[in-house]
Design brief:
Length: 300
């Protein structure tokens, strides 16, 4: 089938194959680059926020708790601002009042929390379980589906590293009276030093970022298709003008010569390969004409 195609058709077929392969490879490579860029962006956002929350936790533990710890035994109600997890959560909730952060989430998901709002759901409990099973794991990240869309999360283990934390979480008889008055004796006890009791999880909405990456992909691919199409048309025009038309002209003259019209001339001024071919045909025509004249003289 390919043997029956003309040079122009064969060349166009090759160009189309090169065009399709180039677009396909470029599309895959570009998609991977943009997806990686989008994931790096949401990861960077999550890491900045989790570092900020850790700063709040550290300040609460080292300053606020120190100032208010003595009042926990005398106050009628527990002072939650002394708890790093509470401070970090409240600060983040204030941050979420800004429109651009309203879909961000922060939680110190705990298996046995004092405050039940920190209770880990099934998904979060599995993450805590992984941290407990392998203490070498210091971070888990991935994507999770929520009703509002897909989010990217980063989770880090939270362990009991300071002895004073056990004052509120070892046994009810050691806990401050204000804590028992506010939360009771059923939850948040039995913790031990160095135990991983929770996972610090920050969730960043990712659909907008990846949607932006998809729009960028569509735009760039559209430009590439347009550029490739223009290049193919331009190459096709140049090949037709500089090669195919000249070969067709030589073919037409050769047909005239083959029918005995020796007045036809392979007029080609160019010195490239096609010009050399035309010159060779002219020499062949001249030789053929001389041979035919000699043959005619002999016959006469």
């Amino acid at each position: 089938m390919l043997k029956n195609l003309k040079i122009g058709s064969k060349f166009n077929l090759i160009l189309m194959l090169v065009f399709l392969v180039s677009i396909f490879v470029s599309g895959i490579a570009l998609s991977r680059v943009l997806d990686q860029k989008a994931q790096n962006e949401v990861t960077s956002q999550a890491q900045i926020l989790i570092k900020t929350m850790n700063s709040v936790r550290s300040y609460t533990q080292n300053h606020i708790n120190t100032l208010l710890a003595a009042r926990l035994e005398t106050e009628p109600a527990f002072i939650p601002e002394t708890v790093p997890a509470y401070s970090a959560t409240e600060v983040f909730e204030n941050l979420r009042k800004n429109a651009e952060y309203q879909n961000f989430l922060y939680k110190e998901a705990t298996l046995n929390p004092t405050n039940l709002r920190d209770k880990a759901d099934d998904f979060e409990a599995k993450i805590v379980g992984r941290f407990r099973q392998d203490s070498k794991i210091q971070e888990i990240s991935g994507f999770r589906d929520f009703p509002d869309g897909k989010v990217f999360y980063i989770a880090r283990p939270l362990a009991i590293k300071q002895q004073n934390c056990l004052q509120c979480h070892s046994t009810p008889d050691r806990a401050p009276k204000s804590l028992l008055a506010s939360y009771g004796t059923d939850n948040g006890f039995g913790w031990q030093l160095n135990d991983i009791v929770a996972a610090q999880i920050i969730s960043v909405p990712s659909e907008d970022v990846f949607a932006s990456a998809n729009r960028t992909w569509n735009l760039i691919m559209g430009l590439l298709v347009a550029i490739f199409a223009i290049v193919v048309l331009l190459i096709n025009f140049l090949i037709k003008k500089t090669v195919i038309q000249r070969i067709r002209k030589i073919e037409k003259v050769a047909q005239q010569v083959s029918t005995g019209d020796m007045s036809a001339d392979f007029a080609e001024k160019s010195h490239d390969e096609i010009g050399g071919l035309a010159a060779a045909f002219n020499r062949m025509k001249a030789s053929l004409e001389i041979a035919m004249n000699l043959l005619n003289q002999q016959n006469q």
